[in-house]
Amino acid sequence: MTKIVPEDKARQGHWGWHALRILIAGLLLAFIAWGAVEIYGELIKSPTTQQTVPEAPPAAQKSIQGG
Predict the structure, then answer these.
(1) 0.85 cut: is pTM over it?
(2) Cα separation of 67 and 1, whole Å?
């Protein structure tokens, strides 16, 4: 025989503070992990080396160009 349960009693539990605390803690842990990865990424980034050719004085450029 099936049991008839009123609608207000058949619902699952309400969210409550416990679930809210768990969601907030998970969000904070995600931000902490993100920050740690950002800091680690900055630490391991190799410095960019710029290889520029030094410009010769104008008199040296004329002799190089043959003029």
Answers:
(1) no
(2) 110
